[in-house]
Design goal:
Largest sheet: 7 strands, mixed
Helix content: 25-40%
Number of helices: 10
CATH class of the largest domain: Alpha Beta
Strand order of the largest sheet: 2-10-9-8-5-3-4
Radius of gyration: 21 Å
Shape: globular
């Protein structure tokens, strides 16, 4: 990794090194145009080619059907927390939410501004250490849509499959921290959204994949920028889009494609996660926090024997070249975020460091 250290940050997070190196070139002069990608007009042919390629490769690697629109928006996933209910909920309507962490709780809070969110299932009683099963889920009688968060960065849990929602109910998903980490059946969803800054790009852009019939069902009396149809009709260019983010996202999509696509990406991520969890499961010093059947392959959360030793571990890890291991301030402990771009060797080296720390601090 030359002069770069291991970056375990939960987001903004590590990007593929080939993407960063290509960006170095294209920031100066993209496509032999004599102008850098940061400087091109979004209405010009050079950037239009960038945008077209980003969408085309995104569709290819994820198998996105033709009746879905791919949008590159701003505002982060947090803006989708209110944009979704604003578009699809009336005051007397109910929407079902499965609450598995802080981000889904925030989504529920925003939905209360526009309708009635019903918590169909939650794992809050265990401090979100597991993903609720079908037997723990109680859907409302006639939800306008169902919503869940596929991976929970703070608590280190991840869905293995798709919730079995009632027939005909549109399913919405916040995939901010695990999108394109494994094969994805887009047709099972009405809307998918993801902040780019964890797995597919830099901070500043939000990927939205939305079924066309849902776009038409959205309210038409909202401010122009808050309607999905505005961005769908103009190819994400109603106004100046997050241009550089779109460029980087396109490069990340091509990097995934070159690795062999989402199936290959899943295998890589399972190998990396296995290295860390195998060690944690056999350590009597460190311990993982999530239940085994709900563990995230993106964010491995764990604790040490005491908060003092955790602070020492984080400090010594940084000095040894392992950055970003401090857990979220709301839960403490440690967190190793090993998104798509994180190298397998980093997991191997972290385990070796943890073994030495364990030996030296008993």
């Amino acid at each position: 990794m030359s002069d770069r250290i291991y970056n375990f940050s939960a987001g903004p997070a590590i990007l593929p090194e080939p993407v960063l190196k290509q960006a170095q070139t294209d920031i100066w002069n993209i496509a032999d145009s004599g102008v850098g990608v940061l400087e091109h007009s979004h209405r010009g042919s050079v950037f239009q080619a960038v945008a077209d390629e980003a969408e085309a490769v995104c569709r290819e690697i994820a198998g996105i059907p033709d009746n879905y629109k791919v949008l590159f928006l701003t505002g982060g996933a947090s803006s989708q927390f209110f944009t979704i209910p604003m578009n699809f909920l009336a005051p007397d309507d109910t929407a079902d939410y499965i609450v598995t962490g802080s981000w889904s709780k925030k989504a529920v809070k925003e939905a209360k501004l526009f309708g009635t969110p019903h918590v169909a299932a939650t794992s809050e009683e265990s401090n979100f250490t597991y993903i609720p099963g079908a037997e723990q889920t109680q859907w409302s009688d006639a939800p306008k849509y169902a919503h869940y968060t596929s991976n929970n960065t703070i608590f280190g849990t991840q869905w293995r499959g798709i919730p079995a929602v009632p027939a005909g109910v549109p399913l919405m998903c916040d995939m901010s921290s695990d999108i394109f980490s494994k094969p994805l059946d887009v047709s099972g969803y009405a809307l998918i959204y993801a902040g780019a800054q964890k797995n597919i790009g830099p901070a500043g852009a939000t990927l939205v994949i939305i079924r066309e019939d849902l776009i038409e069902a959205g309210r038409a009396d909202l401010p122009t920028m808050l309607q999905y149809r505005t961005h769908a009709d103009k190819g994400s260019m109603y106004n100046t889009p997050p241009a550089f983010c779109m460029y980087i996202m396109g490069q990340v999509f091509k990097w995934i494609q070159d690795l062999g696509g989402l199936a290959a990406m899943q295998q890589i991520n399972e190998d990396k996660g296995g290295i860390l969890y195998d060690y944690l499961d056999n350590s009597d010093f460190f311990r993982p926090t999530a239940e085994p059947d709900s563990r995230s392959l993106m964010n491995v959360t764990f604790r040490g024997p005491s908060e003092d030793l955790e602070a020492k571990f984080i400090k010594e890890a940084l000095a040894a070249g392992f950055s970003g291991l401090k857990g979220h301030r709301s839960v403490g402990g440690m967190r190793a975020s090993i998104y798509n771009a994180f190298p397998k060797q980093g997991c191997v080296d972290l385990v070796e460091f943890m073994k030495k720390f364990e030996t030296n601090n008993r």
